[in-house]
UniProtKB/TrEMBL annotation:
A molecular function GO annotation: peroxidase activity
Record's protein name: Carbon monoxide dehydrogenase
Record bears the keyword Translocase: no
Keywords: 4Fe-4S, Iron, Iron-sulfur, Metal-binding, Nickel, Oxidoreductase
Key word Metal-binding present: yes
High-level lineage: Bacteria, Pseudomonadati, Thermodesulfobacteriota, Syntrophobacteria, Syntrophobacterales
Source species, domain of life: Bacteria
Pfam families registered for this protein in UniProt: Prismane (PF03063)
Amino acid sequence: MAEVEKKEKKKEYNLKEFTTCESTLMMLQKAAAEGVDNAFFRAAEMKPCPIGMESACCKHCAMGPCRLNPKDPYSRVGVCGATIDTIAARNFARMVASGAAAHTDHGMTMLDVFRDVVNGKIKDYKIKDEVKLREVAKSVGIEVEGKETLEIAKELYHELEKTYTQVEGEIPFAKRVPPKTLETWRKLGIVPRGAMREIMELMHRSHMGVDQDYRNIVLQCSRTALADGWGGSMVATEISDILFGTPKPLVAAVNMGNLKEDHVNIIVHGHEPNLFESMIDSVNDPKLIEKAKEAGAKGIQLLGMCCSGAEALSRHGIPHAGNFMSTEAVLVTGAVDAMAVDVQCIKQGLSTVAKCYGTRLFTTNPRCKIEGVEHIEFHEREPRKCTDKIVEMAIERFKNGRPDRIVIPPRRDFGVHGFSHEYINYMLGGTFRASYKPLNENIINGKIRGVAGVVGCTNPRVRQDWVHVELVKELIKNNVLVVQTGCSQIALAKAGLMKPDAAVLAGDGLAEVCEAVGMPPVLGLGSCVDNSRILIACAEMVRIGGLGESIADLPVAGAAPEYMSEKAICIGQYFVASGVYTVFGVTFPTIEGTKFHKHLFEELEEMGLGKWGFATDPIEMAHKMIAHIDKKREALGIMGPRERKLFDMADRRALDVV
Ligand code: NFS
Ligand code: SF4
């Protein structure tokens, strides 16, 4: 093992409290025995800052930093006089701005690639899904009849560019928003113009001495977040589908057991699909496979992690090694020959763990370099230059750099992945009458109580995967159909809930529908930018009719029970602004009882939008969502004969015993 800085751990940890993922647990045991530091151990050593946790500090200027304590008369406001509501709202705004920037910059890269493909400057990718190209073009008002593919593509490029650069008017995908929802946005002045403008304005307004009315700040938070959900993220999803294919359900495996000791193992971890798509070509190149064999390997095994992994899983059935909190753990196997990362959710700690096991770690995107980590830049115009080189380095490590002991956790969990809005349409209605009508009908007749989106990260402050899995189980048991993305989807895939036979865990009504259609009760839609698929599904449910006129009328709810990222906050805000009740776990960056908190958790709903919720217990979280779904059902007059069962303390206690 290479000589690297190792930290003596201070306490004996109960590792089982860190994760419910068997493979990650095995690797944490190995890491503990070998003295290898990782985010779980660091989180146990370093308690979160209590002031920061409540978002009660401000460092927006050099008169501070100011720490507020609403109970202490001398620190009720900052030096400039900013109140707790202003400070928490500004901090929240900065999170939304950063999250929106991440997704929209990712979408922008996809658009750059699309432009180069259309102009013929990129030859390695092409338009794979022409049907989707035409559908997307039509949805933004482009006339497609009698036009060539390339002509439509050019027009679509110019139209979608406005998502970013437009300085007045409404972003193109606002045309997909149900009219009543759009009317509410217009009334509030929160229809996004262009993402760059909204993010810039939000950064400006959260500067010292600018916007000091939390309600006004939150309006711009909504506008910016909507520029992500119905803008940058939606562009990322749609262009990725056009270039790399719209996912269709396929059976694929997740978990670390997909590593193969006798193969060269390569992991791609990050967010933009381009790197991954080219890596797929590289690992299938006969010349490189031959090289691997010459080095003594049986072949090359490619795996994904985090969101680009979720996309490759959905589109191509490439195995997925694990979610965010497993990225360091997987290196502890010693079996990973190379890990290539691009942007977002890349822990700097990977660098140390990789050194411990001789794994070759590479950054590839000019936006994300890590001190001490080798950078091989990925250029979409010559993508194979980078990915072939990484494969060669991986082969080299397989031959000369493997540690004495390799331990691969044995679990592989199979499930169905790759649902998309288009496929759900087809699955429910069949080829000739593809429609959401059967979904709406089953919601109206009460077999399906409602739909919940369960998404987002894993976080070492809570037991990995546990909240996701228990929450989803409770939801489907109560006949709520669950749609998923990102790290949450991988948690449920590991728990085996992405299979049609998981319908046995669903309530009678939902199980009946799942059996009739042949679908699992939990549908995986891909990466975090693919949350835009959930927005489109909501818009379609409204359009089909019978469930109200706006997204806020639908019996739906969302949750990110183990979130950690600023992107998650932005996603939460665009769901809330779109009309969805959205519950977060772990911690929420506000102080209960403040005006700002009340605004997010109550007043936004009174304004015709959705609202925020918070719970750390998965069962409580599920029942908050179910109560909201029932409230919407009642308002729609479709509560029906189903007996309303409130979750009482007796139930709660019964569950605690288990
Ligand atoms: Ni989403 Fe994807 Fe995972 Fe969280 Fe990170 S990988 S974009 S942010 S941690 S779900
Ligand atoms: Fe303190 Fe106000 Fe400066 Fe923030 S902006 S650091 S609250 S003085």
